[in-house]
């Protein structure tokens, strides 16, 4: 029995390929680990604010010295961090936007990468504090980036691998629904992407 956290970052709801792929990964995980629970965080709905002065100041202070205003401003961040600590498996559904992650997901990143909570500096070196978790990235794109000439243009997967690794999450597997804007590929893109999920 596993505790699964699903991060959704497409605004396209039922139309979203990244959400579909993430759900398919979760179905297979649930079949493998009956009784697993799923917490969903739709970061588009949650609308994590671009960091304001209050966040940046509060991030540097210990919890016990936060003012009521800082505590309130950090509520969403604290909840997002707690969700990560609670999870055994994190599935992150990502629509590729302008060769990178969407702003809604970057907002979530800015609210979970926190010194003293998800990483710390030991002897001048960063140490991730969220070790021991499995992560699946479910990436959807119109182009094909897993291989071929466009591979170097995908900044989403390398960035997510880096920033999750920075927080200690280094066991990462990527699945894709890709080529859904390319004639000759789009016809089978969804089927191929869903069938590629081996768990
Ligand atoms: C604002 C925007 C930017 C996009 N940028 C790219 C891109 O850089 N490369 C690409 O292959 N597809 C791009 N797409 C297409 C999406 O990646 C594609 O529609 C994907 O299926 C979106 O994921 P979703 O189905 O989960 O919403 C873009 C779509 C939008 C709306």
From TrEMBL:
Q: Which HAMAP family does the entry link to? A: Azoreductase_type1
Gene3D superfamilies, alphabetically? Answer: 3.40.50.360
**What gene codes for this chain?**
azoR
Question: Would you tell me the protein name for this molecule?
Answer: FMN dependent NADH:quinone oxidoreductase
Return the broad EC class.
oxidoreductase
Co-factor binding comment: Binds 1 FMN per subunit.
**EC numbers for this chain:** 1.6.5.-, 1.7.1.17
The residues forming the signal peptide are: none
What residues does FMN bind to? 10, 16-18
Q: Print the keywords alphabetically.
A: Flavoprotein, FMN, NAD, Oxidoreductase
Domain Flavodoxin-like fold, chain residue ranges per copy: 2-183
Q: Which cofactor does it need?
A: FMN
- Give the reactions, separated by semicolons, that this protein catalyses: 2 a quinone + NADH + H(+) = 2 a 1,4-benzosemiquinone + NAD(+); N,N-dimethyl-1,4-phenylenediamine + anthranilate + 2 NAD(+) = 2-(4-dimethylaminophenyl)diazenylbenzoate + 2 NADH + 2 H(+)
Query: What family does the Swiss-Prot or TrEMBL record give for this protein?
Result: Belongs to the azoreductase type 1 family.
Q: What does this protein do?
A: Quinone reductase that provides resistance to thiol-specific stress caused by electrophilic quinones. Also exhibits azoreductase activity. Catalyzes the reductive cleavage of the azo bond in aromatic azo compounds to the corresponding amines.
- A Pfam family hit: Flavodoxin_2
Subunit composition?
A: Homodimer.
């Amino acid at each position: 029995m596993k505790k699964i956290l699903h991060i959704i970052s497409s605004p396209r709801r039922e139309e979203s390929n990244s959400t579909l792929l993430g759900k398919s990964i979760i179905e297979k995980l649930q079949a493998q680990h009956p009784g697993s629970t799923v917490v969903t965080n739709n970061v588009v709905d949650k609308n994590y604010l671009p960091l304001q002065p209050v966040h940046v100041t509060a991030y540097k202070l210990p919890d016990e010295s936060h003012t009521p205003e800082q505590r309130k401003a950090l509520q969403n961040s604290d909840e997002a961090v707690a969700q990560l600590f609670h999870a055994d498996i994190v599935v992150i559904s990502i629509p590729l936007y302008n060769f990178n992650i969407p702003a809604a997901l970057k907002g979530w990143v800015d609210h979970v990468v926190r010194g003293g909570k998800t990483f710390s500096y030991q002897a001048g070196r960063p140490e991730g504090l969220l070790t021991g978790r499995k992560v699946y990235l479910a990436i959807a794109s119109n182009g094909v980036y897993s291989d071929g000439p466009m591979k170097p243009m995908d900044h989403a997967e390398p960035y997510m691998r880096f920033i999750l690794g920075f927080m200690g999450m280094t066991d990462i597997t990527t699945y894709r629904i890709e080529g859904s804007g390319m004639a000759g590929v789009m016809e089978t893109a969804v089927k191929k992407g869903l069938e590629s999920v081996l768990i």
